[in-house]
Amino acid sequence: MAARSLSACACGSGKPYAACCGSYHRGAKPLTAEALMRSRYTAFVHGLPEYLHITWAARTRPKVSELPATGMPFTRLEILRTQGGGPFDTEGVVEFAAYSPTGVQHEVSRFIREDGAWVYLDGDLR
């Protein structure tokens, strides 16, 4: 974990993991839907199913056992568009492309607030 903390965050922010998505994975709450989306992408890369579970809307949340427990081979994240999802919004949309050696996952994700915190509601693959 120490090496991960010092390396660049997988979300592409250019910040060290510990000062970026690592802070969310340790309990800080993202202020925007985009920040939550980036932290979830990084959780997929690092295989953090518990984080994915707690940041998923209650009404659409799968069981933890249904989430990947090993890292996914994503190599780059590109945010294509955001709509809403700011610090004072209650809904948001983030369109992104997640690149891997086998192709690109293009998704439009919807986010909502539950108990004041951003959570992933659902997404449409393109």
Q: What are the main properties of this structure?
A:
alpha+beta; Nuclear Transport Factor 2, Chain: A; 4-stranded antiparallel β-sheet
Structure write-up:
With 126 residues, the chain is α+β, with helices and mostly antiparallel strands. The protein has one domain: Nuclear Transport Factor 2, Chain: A (Roll). 24% of the residues lie in helices and 32% in strands. The chain contains 4 helices and 4 strands, in the order H-H-H-H-E-E-E-E. The protein has helices at residues 2-6, 21-25, 33-46, 49-54; strands at 76-84, 91-100, 103-114, 117-125. The protein has a 4-stranded antiparallel beta sheet, covered by helices on one side. It is globular and about 35 Å long. The N and C termini lie far apart (34 Å).
What would a concise description of this structure say?
With 126 residues, this protein is an alpha+beta fold. Helix content is 24%, strand content 32%. The chain is globular.
- The strand line-up of the biggest sheet is 1-2-3-4
First and last CA, distance: 34 Å
Integer average pLDDT: 95
Strand content: 25-35%
* Helical amount: 10-25%
CATH class: Alpha Beta
- Identify the quaternary structure here: single chain
- Domain count: the total is 1
Largest sheet: 4 strands, antiparallel
Q: Overall 3D geometry?
A: globular
CATH hierarchy: architecture: Roll
